[in-house]
Amino acid sequence: MDTVPEVVERISLAFEAKGATVPREKISGKLNLLVSEFGIPLEEAERVVTNELMREYNLSPSSGAGAPAGQRAIRDLQTGEWVTVEGKVVSVSSPPIAAIAQSGIIADSTGAISFTIWAKANVPPLENWKWYRLEAAVVDEYRGVPKLNLHSGTKIQLLDDDRALMPSIIPIQSLKPGVGSIRAKFIQEWEPRHERMLQTGLLGDATGTMKFIIWKEENKEKLVLNTVYSIHYATVEEFNGRLSLNLTSAAYFPEEGEDIDVASSVGTDEIAGVIVHMGPGSGLIKRCPVEGCNKALSRYNECPIHEIQREFRWDLRITGVIDDGGEATNILVQRDIAEKLSGMTLDEAIALAENNPLGFDDVLDRMKNAVMGRYIRCRGSILDGTLLVRECTPTAFDPALHAALLNRAAPVPGGAPQ
Q: Of 344, 320, 333, 319, nearest to 379 (Cα)?
């Protein structure tokens, strides 16, 4: 879009009043960049361009449009604002796409916020662990997470400062989208569902629990189960109304010998019904022995990431569907509970597979005969539509539930089940 001529004229006249002549094409070009390329409101773009040109022509800004904003605490930033902040860069990340020159986290004594520098902004990268003053940065939002956008009109000043900066630790139940620091215990580890995922699981403190994820990056280490950690500057993300923690850019420190009484609400998602399906990933499986992988191998010992493996680790699990008469839900049952439900231990399953012509298929058939059609109650945590089962108990026959299940399976006109 073309810049409003009145705005170009107004800025030009303001400079002429101070004895400077700025080409109107230059003013128009800078305004168009901010408005058209970055989607910045015209009023704010006018202020930024005026500030930038004032600095370029060694003039002092006047009051009104173009006056520098007062410094703000990071904790008080609101989406849509143009702000000036002072803070310390506590994390820098590898750009996920070529359009981004740098991303990271900047913090002050009140809080922290993610920042992004777009490649087309031609802004110099920030250095980790350095203090900066950022003038005319924009507070934006992405997937519910506030972030700071640094553009061509942002003035970046490196501060000769090395103040101590301690993150504010808050309870898990008080986290909101953005950046947060917590003290929590690693209480559950889940199988990664993506090859780029280093680790995922559940963290908990006295107020609640939350899923976390760590993506594979150089020098990133996995958490140790049942260990308490101080976690500084984790990204709190929101998806489908649920919050989760991304620790990829966070700093985490184990607290040796410490413990936390985790809230009793751990794994309170509950479903009662009948196991109506067991998937092909059920039964006796082999897992990749490469540290940090743990993915299920094919029957030919092939890992989807690390190719053919000569060694492996045996495991027993159930991937299936439980139906409560009104809704079907995917479930994932790990070894200890799978053994109890099926009445078959891992060692018995291994022996059966190695000494029976049908091998793995025989193990799966026996587990299906023992599990499918049973009325059970499962408790755990729902992740991406799947209940990760932590506890499972048999329940008594329920005639009403049985009738609902039969009705759902009954044929309708056209031959399709309900």
A: 333
Query: Residues 125, 129, 133, 136: is their CA dihedral positive or negative?
Result: positive
Tokens at 398, concatenated: 């329920």
pLDDT at 106: 95
CA-closest candidate to residue 385, choices 336, 321, 312: 321
What are the phi and psi torsion angles at 190 (to 5°)?
-115, 155
Q: Are 295 and 375 in contact (CB under 8 A)?
A: no
Band (252; pLDDT cuts 50, 70, 90): very high
Nearest to 122 by CA among 52, 43, 46, 20: 52
Given 3-state DSSP classes, what are the helix, strand and coil percentages for the chain, each rounded to the nearest 5? 20, 40, 40
Q: Residue range 111-128: average pLDDT?
A: 89
CB atoms within 10 A of CB 159: 13
Considering 16-20, 331-335, 404-408, the range whose residues carry the highest mean pLDDT is: 331-335
Which secondary-structure segment (H or E) carries 32?
A: helix 24-32
Q: Please give the mean pLDDT across all residues of the chain.
A: 83
